[in-house]
Every structure is written in structure tokens, then in C-alpha cells.
Specification:
The complex is a heterodimer of chains A (254) and B (332). Chain A is an alpha/beta fold. Chain A is built from nine helices and twelve strands. In chain A, the strands form three sheets. A six-stranded mixed sheet of chain A has the order 8-9-10-3-11-12, with helices on both faces. Chain A has a four-stranded antiparallel sheet with strand order 2-1-4-5, with helices on one face. In chain A, strands 6-7 form a two-stranded antiparallel sheet. In chain A, α3 packs parallel to α5, α4 packs across α5 and α5 packs parallel to α6. In chain B, the strands form three sheets. A two-stranded antiparallel sheet of chain B has the order 1-2. A two-stranded antiparallel ribbon of chain B has the order 3-4. Chain B has a two-stranded antiparallel sheet with strand order 5-6. In chain B, β3 and β4 form a beta hairpin. In chain B, α2 crosses α11 and α3 runs antiparallel to α10. The longest helix of chain B is centred in the N-terminal third of the chain and has 32 residues. The chains are: A alpha/beta (254), B alpha+beta (332). At the A-B interface, α2, β8 and α3 of A face α8 and α9 of B.
Chain lengths: 254, 332
Amino acid sequence: MTTPMVEARGISKSFGAVQVLSGVDLTVERGQVACLIGPSGSGKSTFLRCINHLEKHDAGELRVDGSLVGYRQSGNKLYELNDRQICAERSQIGMVFQRFNLFPHLTALENITIAPQRVLGKKGPETIRRAQELLERVGLSDKAESYPSQLSGGQQQRVAIARALAMDPKLMLFDEPTSALDPELVGEVLDVMRDLAKSGMTMVVVTHEMGFAREVADVAYFLDEGVVQEWGNPREMLVSPRTQRLAGFLSKVL
Amino acid sequence: MTTNGDAPLQVVPVRHYGRWLTMALVAVAAAMLINTLLSKVPTGLEECHQVLVNGHSHQVCVSTMRWRFFWDVVGNYLFDASIFRGLWLTLELTVFAMAIGITLGVITAVMRMSPNRIVSSSAWLFTWFFRGTPVYVQILFWFNIAFLYPKIQLGLPFGPHFFTVNVLTLFTGFVAALTALGLNEGAYMSEIVRAGFKAVDEGQIEAAQALGMTRLQTMWRITLPQAMRVIIPPTGNELISMLKTSSLASAIAVTELLKSTSNIASRTFQTMQLLIVASLWYLTVTTVLSIGQFYVERHFAKGSSRSMPPTPLQRIKQDLRRLGFGNREVRS
């Protein structure tokens, strides 16, 4: 049996006195798409940010591709990784944000090429060719020279996905990628994500799009009050919830 | 367009009576200003000639006139070699002091944002001290620093010295002025740079980190270029302000622009004339700097709005086109 891509055991995290995560267990196998659903404030975004160490978890064991996130184990001691090592870990994990976070001073193409050039040290022409391929894949080959302010929300988010893919990540994290979009623009972003899932990318998606979760996800986790309340096959779970909490949540969002 | 039967409705634009009145008032004020600038006044002296009228000699006296603003004298001194030397020294002081100020400002701004409390509070202390005392006092202070430290010795702390510098010869007027202006500017630039960094959205830093960029790469490639948009306009103001503040160096016998004019004035007693000479040069340099500032701001506005603001030249062309000159179809 191969090691799972993401394996979390008892992840806890608090901001000051507020306990955001209390003992989250989760497993995402290679090539799987996992959806995290739950009410706002349930800790799902925080958990996602722990996976690439944008947030530091307080307790528990979090592994990506078999190796610990943020630490190195030697004997029975955990050594905190230095900045450079954390950057190396992050460069293999792509992340897409709710508010896109494209770099406004760079064109769409430059947004995609900057990290391969600066982080991976790849040559300019090579990264430009790859960026053009990726722009074509997300259906924006004519927008290479546009600045983010000249693009619609849906187009910006597709560029953001291309930017993450340019690093050839082994895992993609999506933090509510369609929540900041106008309703008519949600479809184009979900289409790109669907294609990505089909291509075999391992994905962890925090989302409120229940239709997408049901259709694309292999596994769904329902978080509430920092705890996984229920998990399983989304096609069963979202149709006939076992817990009262999930049933209550679904009745509000569907 | 709404129609009234077959005839299209006529649109009557709003009449801006207030604007017309303001324009008239401004035009009158401008005319008065030009009039007084180009006016002449009696010198108080008279020029007399002997004139022969019908075989008799008469004395005719005319009181002589001069420019109210001494334009002839001003013109004589404007391009004087000693004025140019002073102007050059002023530019040197301005550029070097700003260079020191910007460098110190960036360093202390980064220090202020450091998670290390000792580092951040020492940067705060720097700003507090150099912003809290008048720059004129600081100039005098550095000029007289030899009273406190007659010698600077380079060596190990509390240990042996390797070599010694005589402070009295090191801190000439120029060096003292440069030190004071640079340190003072550093304190102001620190706040400007810090405000610029703070204006960048937190999500930008997260996005860069998520791509695996280091702190330094993030700052250099992502945060700083975006912060520049906020940093540049007040820095331009600081540069222009520095050009004029550098005139304080004349108090410690640095022959910059103001001192070079007042040197002549104390010889010839043409105080007003030479103050006008100095003012004209300050205005000229300020104008050049303002034009430069416009283009630098335009460069860093890249990507922040959908279209670039027009340059003054483009704006003049636009206005001319609106008035009916040139090709109307280009406008859209």
C-alpha cells in the first residue's frame, strides 16, 4: 500500500483562547479529490492552511507525501524546519485562494512564470512556453499580456490556478475558490477544476459548492466546531446524512 | 434618444455660471500679477540734459525708471559662475542626503516590522529621536560634534584602537550638513516606507509564500514593487522639500545656492535681487523634479488601474482636440 498524499492525525490549533481545530483526522490518497465542507468558522480553511504550513498546527501529526509538515523527525525528536526548508516543502504544494491574490503589478503571464523562475531557477523561455500551455489549458491564451485588474473574477481565478500548476505540484489546495465570484462566473472555474481532477491531480477543496462535491469528490469531510463530524463518499453522505449536524447544514445550503 | 414626435429633443447643457465667474476672477488676478511683475518704478534719481530751445539753453530733467523686480540685475547674476557652483553644491547635498535618507528609511522600516522586539524598538527609537528635534538644531549639532568627540578611534569595543580620526577635520560644514539632513530624512522615510509596506494586501504575501518564495524574494519581487506606488509620491515631496531644506546649510558656511547668492549680496547690497536669483533656481529645479515625479509615478501605477493617466502632453492634445483643433475622430 502506498503512502497517502495527505495524512492528518489529531490536528489541533487555537488562535489565542479560541480553539479552531480539535483533533482532526483526515486521509487523502494519491489522485483523490477531497472536499471539506462545513459552516463558516468550522476550521476548514485553517486546516487547509496547515497543510502548506501557512498556519502552524499546535498538536497532532500532519504528513504530506509521507513527510512531516514543518518538522523533521530524528529519533524521538522533532526539529522545526528553517525558512528555506519550509519554502521547499511549499513549492511542491499549489494553493488557490478565495480572493485570487494574483500579483497586480505583473501580467497574467508574469504571474505564472515568476515562481518557476525565482523558486525553481528555471530558464525564462522554458517557463514562458509552459505558462502559455497552462493559459491555453484554462482557456485564457489571449490574456497573457493582461494585468489582473483587466480580467474578470473568473478569469483571475483561472490564472491563479495556472500559476499554481506552473510549479508542477503534487498536491493542490483550493480555499473556497468560487466564493468571491459572481454566480455566472462560478461554472468556468469549476470546469477547470473538474478537468484537473480528471487528469489525476490530488486535490483538497474547501467549498460550498455541494454539486461539485457530489460530482467530482472521491471523499468528503464535514467539519463543524473544529471536529470532523462525518466523512465518507459524498454521493451517499450528502444525500442521506447520518448526523443531525450535517442534515441541518445541508438543509441551509441546498 | 427620446423623440418628440419626429423631431429629436434638443439637449441643453447645464450652464456653469459659478465656473465662469471664477474664471473671470482668476483672469483678473493673473493680469494684475503679470502687470506688477513687469512694472517699473522711479529710481529716485534724475537724469538731466541741456536742451537748446530758440537759442536758449534749458536744463530738462527726467526721473529714471527701473524694473520693480530688478530683472536686469537678476539677469546679470542668474548665470554667474559662483551661483552655478552654489547650485551644484545644493544638488549634491540634496541627492546625497536623500540617498542616505532612503537607505536608512528602508533599513529602519524593515527593522520596525521585525518580529524581534529589540530590533523593532531600536528602529522606533531612531525615528523618535531624529524626527523629534529640528533639523536646523541637528545641523548645528553635527557641525559642533568635535566638542563632544574630538577624536574617533576605530578598534574593538573597550579594546585596542587601530586608527584615529580627527573629528574637527572630518566634520566640515558639508559633511555635517549631509549627516544631519540624511539622518533626519531617514526618520521621515522610515515612516513613509513602512506605510507603503503596510498598504500591501496580506494575501499577496501569503500567495508568494504558498508558491515557495522566501521572505527576501517576497519582499523584493512582490511587496516592494506594490509598496512603491504608495512610497513614490511622498518621496517626491521629500526630495523637493530636501532641495529647499538644504539651504539651512548656509548657516554653517556651506556655500550652497543660498549662501552663494548672499555672499554676493553682502558685497553689493543687492539683497532682494539675489534672493530672486536664488528663488528662480529653486523653482527651476523643483519644476524639473515634479516632471520626473509624474513619470516615475506613472511607471509604478502599472497594473493598478485599467488605463494609464494621460501625460500632460497628451492632455494638452486632448484639450486642443476638444476645442476643435486637429482630428476629432481620434478621440474616443
